[in-house]
Amino acid sequence: METLRPELSAGGLTNGWPYSTEIAQRDTLIRQSHERSLQFGLSSRDRPDFSAVPQATLHEALEVNRFLYQHAAPVMETLYEQIANTHSMVLLTAKNGMILHSLGDSDFLAKASEVALRPGVEWSERSMGTNAIGTALTEEQPVVVHGRDHYLYANQSLTCSCTPIFDPHGKVVGALDVTGDERGYHSHTLALVRMSAQMVENQMFANLFADAVRIQFHSRPEFLGTLVEGIAVFSPDGRFLSANRSAQFQLGLSFNCLQAHTFSTLFGQSMSQFMDRLRSAVGKPLLLRLNSGVSVWCQTPYKSSKGWYGLGQHDAGADEPEGGAAGLRSRAAPAAVAAAPAPLKASAKQGLSSLHFLDTGDAQVAAVVRKLQMVLDRDIPIMILGETGTGKDILAQAIHNDSRRAAKPFVSVNCASIPETLIESELFGYEEGAFTGARRKGSTGRILQANGGTLFLDEIGDMPTQLQARLLRVLQERRVNPLGSSKEYEVDVTIVCATHRNLKNLIAAGSFREDLYYRLNGIVVRLPALRDRTDFDTVVGKVLSSLCDGPVPAISDAVLALFRRYHWPGNFRQLHNVLRTAVALAGRHGPIGQDHLPDDFLDEMAAVAASPQPAALAPAPAAHEGLSAPLPGRSMGSADREPFSQQADPSATPAAGAPQGQPSVAPPQLQSLAANQRMQDVALQAMADALRRCGGNVSAAAKLLGVSRNTLYRKKDLLPPDCWV
Ligand SMILES: Nc1ncnc2c1ncn2[C@@H]1O[C@H](COP(=O)(O)OP(=O)(O)OP(=O)(O)O)[C@@H](O)[C@H]1O
């Protein structure tokens, strides 16, 4: 009988890879698999059995696995697009390791093995020894089996990345695998395979539990509607039905343990209480607290007597999508099943639905609004630039709402949040029967869903290059050709796109097509960062009232002063989050004081103030500190503005620059923040003075101060311009 190969029994299967704990774990996994292969009576010199089962058996297997097959096939197409020309194949197997479907070119296989990866061949460990499919299915975890990891010598020219696929009941139903030439190994392949499998699982979930209460949750609201959100489903009376892998991870419970739970034992409230909250908050994500104490944001389609209501409805007038939860995703797409989850942005946007509502006093925004009003309905593509969270999505929605297309769909696609593998089918759709035979239904694709209305391509800079050419063709010819279809469909859409990236740089780097750029930027508008808005106080007030159903609490002057000094990297989104927490902590009657601000926000302010790099936090207002020009971070000193609320906050303490006469106990972070801020301001003042005395000569000023020239240059943006001349 054969024994283990020496490099395995010695416990160091490095196989040319750098050694680490992760590799050590993988080695253990591979070694155990080799031991099993040995026990199956296999010899590493055995010739593998690549014979396929008879056609009738294969058809039977396809029928048994139809649910899996239907959901996986379109995802495999897009996965294959990503690895095309890498001498690899994408494989879907049943849970016994039998290949159900394969895509790609087997030209990398030796002549004798060309049949190895076709449907009907079984890749279980029992028949092939250690291999990614068999081992992933046995271990129920993703695995790469590379070159000499394979038990059979005959398979050692392969590199395989495989992950099991779990059905909505938590059982392994099959595996998704990419197999290629060993020399073409790529470290990202397993990640792509895992993302694709996650997509298959989420789609099976959405379709199987269309009538259940589906809770989609994540600790960060921006991840709602993406692949990483947790999904747990319950019967209307709160019985646990199922949870995807992310939900199990976030809840800290395995699928089996979850079976013993109900909605109320997991989320600390009854299903009927939750439904009441949902009814009054349609369109807004809700905060739920897990047993672990962690808070998560949640969204859920909500079924009333009239039908389903849900979040992330971007189709104009789509408050009541038809046809249950599936309809929720695909209102304009009658043929679509298993549609990829739409990139949802959950927010109550009613108050922001028209361009003129966005004009709240900032001159740059007013100019943007004016420009857009002039080009509305002229079929000119619009490109919106701006940092993350500055309201590009809201602006696109407002453009649509003010246009003559308002009654037609507004379809939003976030090119950055959809895995590259899925963008193509998400955008262009795929044809009925294109992948899996007559019963397979197709997907309309987002471009066709937007027909007659507006297609908003958010984060266009993240569009994969190979799809840019296809998009360009659609824009030029106004026709769409779904995947797997020989037909073309006419489409009439207004295109609005947005990005926070510098497309010119992307063009220079070769990752964005110049011709597409010119096609998209008919008119370009830029939204200002929150810190640069001259209507800052007004927007704080506006966001605050949008978060309150009843009375709106006041904000203390100290908090407002902090807000004005902060650089708001997350812009409106961050302001919403900070205020949402503050409102919850302060209660509806407020006022909102520093104690009500989230700890991470206070920590960040303190850290920024303590940092020797002053890039982010603005110094104290110019008037207060005696510097003569406004300083970056906020374009305008707080002294230039009327406070949003004058109501005193008994819990608040003035930070640096806050008005006198406020109560005097500050949280420790803010005390150190204020002290650090003062030190920074004194240092800046000294630098400005030295530069002025030296007539702007940096070397002389640096010598005078006893610091390096670099120190002065680093502060350049924080010093008034007049000291450099
Ligand atoms: N003018 C505004 N007034 C109040 N809230 C706003 C405004 N603009 C945006 N918001 C809110 O800020 C959040 C982020 O807005 P939006 O998604 O439109 O930003 P974005 O620039 O598209 O962000 P990203 O680049 O990250 O996609 C949303 O909750 C939105 O409701």
UniProtKB/TrEMBL annotation:
GO terms for biological process: regulation of DNA-templated transcription. Residues 650-667 have a biased composition (Low complexity). Residues 616-667 are annotated as: Disordered. Residues 358-584 form the Sigma-54 factor interaction domain. CDD domains: AAA. GO terms for molecular function: ATP binding; sequence-specific DNA binding. Keywords: ATP-binding, DNA-binding, Nucleotide-binding, Transcription, Transcription regulation. InterPro entries: AAA+_ATPase, AAA_lid_NorR, GAF, GAF-like_dom_sf, Homeodomain-like_sf, HTH_Fis, P-loop_NTPase, Sigma_54_int. This is Sigma-54-dependent Fis family transcriptional regulator. It comes from Malikia spinosa.
